[in-house]
Sequence to fold (268 residues):
Amino acid sequence: MITKLVHSPLSDSHLSPLVCRTMNIVKLQRFIPVINRSRINTSRFGDKPLWFRPFTIIKVAGKSSGYGLLEDETLAQKKIELFQALEGINRGIFGIPSGKKLEIESLVEQLESQNPTPEPTLELDKVDGCWRLVYSTISILGSRRTKLGLRDFISLGDFFQIIDQAKNKAVNVVKFNAKGLTMLSGELTIEASFKIASKTRVDITFEKSTIIPDQLMNVFRKNYDILLSIFNPEGWLDITYVDDNMRIGRDDKGNIFVLERFEDNSNS
Fold:
């Protein structure tokens, strides 16, 4: 569907410090037993701090050790290329050039084709926990962006999703800062329930939403229906890729979501 992009080899001097560190981690993992590997926090990606985890090398069942290692390194390299492509685009929320979008979505498709968890709803423990959005095809453009004050008055912060598999609950938390209200910080919280529909799909039902503090609710009140239409997750979601630190999904509205695992109890 999308032309596969071919990138010329990059030297370390052309890579960001984060990508260089990630590549070094991948190289070192060849020599470190799986049981001794630790998770390492990294610094920043684009405009927002993103806590990127090192890749875990997974042996491929039924393959020779050499083939498995080659396949694992290919998967790790695709993740590096994806995070490179995501630098500086603010998750794509306010639009990105068509060429950049094609590059990102080609890399997403390549990762999906190597999904290490082909039946994710049978392994929901891998989905459980807190995730942070790093890319989405949801966009806030034109009059919607103006009506929500997201041009100058209000800035859009991090987007978190907390999955509680034991309760079949999902909570979306969208952070905001209102510049005109002495940099008032607030958030929109949307609670939903989900049920398994297939080995890859869950059906999502909206339950309730809240905005805190009240001053932020007053800002959005007139256009609250627009805000919910953007962030309400109701419908179905296919989990097309999930590993220890990355999750990719596609919903019934044609949107793509790329999230990274985020371990911060203050957002759970």
About this structure: The two ends are 37 Å apart (CA to CA).
